[in-house]
Amino acid sequence: MLPQETVVLGGGIIGLSCAFEAARRGHRVTLLESGELGGQASGAAAGMLAPFSENTEQPDPFFQLSLNSLRLFPQWVRDVEEASGIKAELMHTGSLSLIQHEADLLPAQGRLAWQNQWGAGAELVQGSALRKLEPNLSRHIEAAVFNPEESHVYAPKLVAGLIQACRRLGVRLGQHAGRLARLELRQGGGAAIQMMNLEKEIQCDSLLLCSGAWAGELESWLGITIPVHPIRGQICSYPGSAEELRHMVFSSQAYWVGKQNGEIVCGASEDVAGFATGVTEKGIARLTSASSSFYPFLDNRALIRQWAGLRPATRDGFPLLGRVAGRSGIIMAAGHYRNGILLSPVSAKLAIDELEGRSRSDELRPFSPNRFTYI
């Protein structure tokens, strides 16, 4: 029997995805967000779906989770688009990971060997083959790893689509609810929640905790260790077309992604700045310097936008995903760092599966939200 009332705490991409998944399975859902829906890392993200480019060393559980989510993404996006009427602009461009030094060739070949065992279909491209794939790339780059399966979405439209889909499914969306003022976990299951900007206490049978970079604030309420901290990611964009930048391109200094709205997004300069979300001259300068080096045609183009978002990082780089120990009906989905967009469909599926008692223990064990409490 499904729980009568489900509350999702947090209105970023993970919270919205969990609310969407719960609602379409028949739950009565309330989502509470302290500020603007999708207003932090979710709306600021470049929207890259790149498990092979982001995981270059080994097929660990995080890579497997990411690959699973990539392969859920096309149907999941179609479901969101059908439910909302908003196109998320999923683009199957493939990606290029640039090889800048001859010493990097051998590690790249090792990466190709294990990733192709997982169906990457990747190849090493050099010289004229690389120029054909990406004509505007600087001539000092002689080789790259090409991953044809990797894709990207336009994050603001995906967020807007999820918000609209949730509305149409009857999710009660409470934004600008303020920070959590009180959380009472009932012994028999469920919870009572009080938000600072809401007069009424909210009762629920199950609670999904999707607070992103603010998940650490839940430690005192839950009695577990939650080592999540914010990493500021600074991003900028240039005017440009999909013809000028044909693939997602990764280097050791920056990445570039061409969007359908006529922007080439460049990111991300990362630093630890607490919960500050402003851009800095130094952070953006790192990106524009890299752009001039790798894509000279961008050198004289004025930036369209500069922005930043907070990425929720954990101590070991794995997200917190699963049931909170000893708490019936309390599920956490947080700490996705720079992969929140990519991991949205799989996180929502596993979180609601766990809520409904359908998950396999081996799927979630590496990501247990309780794993830092006992070490």
UniProtKB/TrEMBL annotation:
GO MF assignments: flavin adenine dinucleotide binding; glycine oxidase activity
UniProt xrefs under NCBIfam families: thiamin_ThiO
Pathway(s): Cofactor biosynthesis; thiamine diphosphate biosynthesis
Keyword Oxidoreductase: yes
E.C. no: 1.4.3.19
Protein name in the entry: glycine oxidase
UniProt catalytic activity: glycine + O2 + H2O = glyoxylate + H2O2 + NH4(+)
GO-annotated cellular components: cytoplasm
Record-linked InterPro entries: FAD-dep_OxRdtase, FAD/NAD-bd_sf, Gly_oxidase_ThiO
Cross-referenced Pfam families: DAO
GO biological process: thiamine biosynthetic process; thiamine diphosphate biosynthetic process
Domain (FAD dependent oxidoreductase) ranges: 6-353
Alphabetic keyword roster: Oxidoreductase, Thiamine biosynthesis
